[in-house]
Amino acid sequence: MAEKEKRPDFKNPQYYTNRELSWILFNLRVLNEARDKTIPLFERLKFLSITASNLDEFFMIRVASLKDMVAVKYEKPDMAGMTPKEQLAELEKATHELVSLQYSTYSRSLLPLLEKNGLHVIQAHEDLTKRESEYVDRYFTDNVYPVLTPMAVDSSRPFPLIRNKSLNIGALVKKKGEGKELEFATVQVPSVLPRIVELPRSLDGKRSVILLEEVIEKNIEKLFLSYDIVCAYPFRIMRNADLTIEEDEAADLLKEIERQLKKRQRGKAIRLEVEDGIDERLLDIIKRELKIEEEEIYRIAGPLDLTFLMKMYGMEGFGHLKTPAYVPQPVPEMEGTGSIFEKIQKGDILLFHPYQTFTPVVEFIQQASRDPQVLAIKQTLYRVSGNSPIIAALAQAAENGKQVSVLVELKARFDEENNIVWAKMLEKAGCHVIYGLVGLKTHSKITLVVRREEDGIARYVHLGTGNYNDATAKLYTDMGLLTCSEAIGEDATAVFNMLSGYSEPLNWNKLSVAPLWLKDKFLSLIHRETENARQGRKAGIIAKINSLCDQDMIVALYEASAAGVKIQLIVRGICCLRVGIPGVSENIKVRSIVGNFLEHSRIFYFENDGAPEIYMGSADWMPRNLERRVEILFPVEKEELKQRIIHVLDVQLRDNVKANVLTKDNIYEKVDRRGKERLDSQETFCREAEEQASGGQEAYYNRTFVPETHVMESSGSASEF
Question: Which of 28, 285, 405, 690 stands 20 to 30 A from 234 (CA)?
Answer without folding.
Answer: 28
